[in-house]
Amino acid sequence: MAEIHDSKSIMKIFSNKIYHIAYIILAVFAFFINYFFSNIGVYPIDTFSFFDSGYLITKGYHPIKDFWVISGVLIDYIQALFFLIFGNNWNAYIFHSSLLNAFVSIFLFFFLNSLRKGLFSNFFISICFAILCYPIAGTPFPYQHSFILSLVSILVFYMAFYKENKKYWLILPVLMLCSFLSMQLPSGLINLLILIFAFIYFLKINTNHFLYFLIGAVFSLLLFFIYLFYVDVDLKDFIIQIILFPLSIGEGRVLSDEKAYESAKLLNKLTLRGTLGHFKFIFLFILANLIYLIIYLRRNENVAFKKTFLLNLFIILCTTSFIFHQLITANQTFIFSLIPFLCGLFFIQLNDLQKKIDKKLNIFLLIVIAFTTFKYHNDYNTNRKFMDLQNTNLNNSIDAKILNVKFNNLKWITPFHFNKDPKKEIEFLQEAIHVISKEDEKKFAVITHYQFFSLLSEKKIYIFNRWYFAGNNTHPVNNQSKYYSYYKEKINNFVKEKRIEKIYLVKTHPKEFHYLELNNLFEDFCLSEKKYNPIFSLISIKEC
């Protein structure tokens, strides 16, 4: 008997070691696959969004308070932390997104292992997820953060609901707040669904756990208000920049007839052919879950408030919410990692329906996610479709170290204007860096989508916005936005208080920023322009 006992103990130890090794391999793989692809090409508007904003936090500036934002501020603060730990350089920037890719991949693996046996399939699903999750964007990106933290919120909610575990209810509100403070959508849609199904759970399944959820919610709100107080952010500014103005952007995109947003128009995308064609493999797993739901309903009576039924319905609604968000946003598609994610959840659902999953079905589903992973990896990671680089010859890229040593490892190539001559772009940017580095940081601001001048020059350079899109899509640019007067007053007050005398414009192409209408923005000042090169110019500000 002792020998049998020892044999079982040895097998248990061996099994645990295999799991530990699998976690380590997954973490390393998830980190480095994002690290590798984040170094291939840049799309300035998105790639450098949190580069300077993160650095400026380390120097005392804060989003919302000191510069205009339309997305949450969590990414800025996380990036500031990475700069403090790893130094002010490109590697510290992509360590941020790479570690998040590792974290969510590991958490998915943990979740799958907690609810079903099958080390190989769980590991394979998590590997495929890691390939399609953050590497599609590569660098820190608000929608990606919000999507990932929403997925983690879904998994924590699933375990809280399924296992009736109070600790998960306690941490869930913190995750919900973090996802919202990364980007309002898709997190807002997912948070709403969580609240609805949590209410059903507390009402019909376990009333006692409401207290833990409430404690977590109060703690989250307390942290939020401490943040507002500590950095001296006005609640009105937060509401306008994070809630009201973004809502006006969303409304404009849904109702827009402009060709510029044809790919993002709700009515255009919500065609059966267009939607099913683009998200066909995600719909495959929605269909699988619906079939499962029908079978479950036929086998069980009085299922209205049974956990298995509710969780399946919850997952279907969450998935459709992600798709809906992708349809109405003007941004790029990033939700293909839902395919392995949904496959893993579907396996769990099948375990509840039958003790053992049919081997042929198991193999078929793994082949599907293997195929889709290869397909979207090739499109979005290798060819950088996400970064609008798919029509750019990536072989033309050059070592970004020639721009600045802090960009070591980055292969520089941008889409559109300079994609055939990146050396010329670098040349223009070098002149801009040289001129700006000599300036007194207290007397000027920079308007650019190359958001790296503060960090490269190691100056506390004022930026008006995080982004500068046309048509009131990132900030109010004219009276067509009801928040223009608020924005105008905020910017002008800062210029007067800081006694800013100059604005440097650094464009991604010569015709960029024609829509800014600076003369209307600064009505109390006279402006004059001096051009240094086709993309770099100086706007002098003087009282008339």
The ordered string of helix (H) and strand (E) elements is: HHHHHHHHHHHHHHHHHEEHEHHEHEE
Radius of gyration (CA) equals: 25 Å
The rough form would be described as globular
Low-confidence stretches: 1-5, 257-268
Strand sequence of the main sheet, in spatial order? 3-4-6-5
Helix content: 55-70%
Structure classification? mainly alpha
Total beta strands: 6
Mean pLDDT: 88
- What does the main sheet amount to? 4 strands, mixed
Distance between the termini: 96 Å
Please give the domain count. 2
In percent, how much strand structure appears in the residues?
5-15%
Number of helical regions:
21
What this model shows, in words?
This protein has two domains: 24-387, no CATH class; 421-543, no CATH class. The protein has 21 helices and six strands. It has a four-stranded mixed sheet. It is 61% helix and 6% strand. The chain is mainly α and 544 residues long. The protein starts with a helix and ends with a strand. The protein is globular and about 80 Å long. The longest helix is centred in the N-terminal third of the chain and has 36 residues, at 2-37.
Which helices and strands appear, and what pairs or packs with what?
Layout: H1 2-37, H2 44-47, H3 51-58, H4 74-86, H5 90-115, H6 119-132, H7 142-163, H8 166-180, H9 184-204, H10 210-230, H11 235-255, H12 266-269, H13 272-278, H14 280-299, H15 307-328, H16 338-353, H17 359-382, E1 398-399, E2 411-412, H18 422-437, E3 444-448, H19 453-457, H20 484-498, E4 502-506, H21 518-521, E5 525-533, E6 536-543
Parallel strand pairs: 3-4
Antiparallel strand pairs: 1-2, 4-6, 5-6
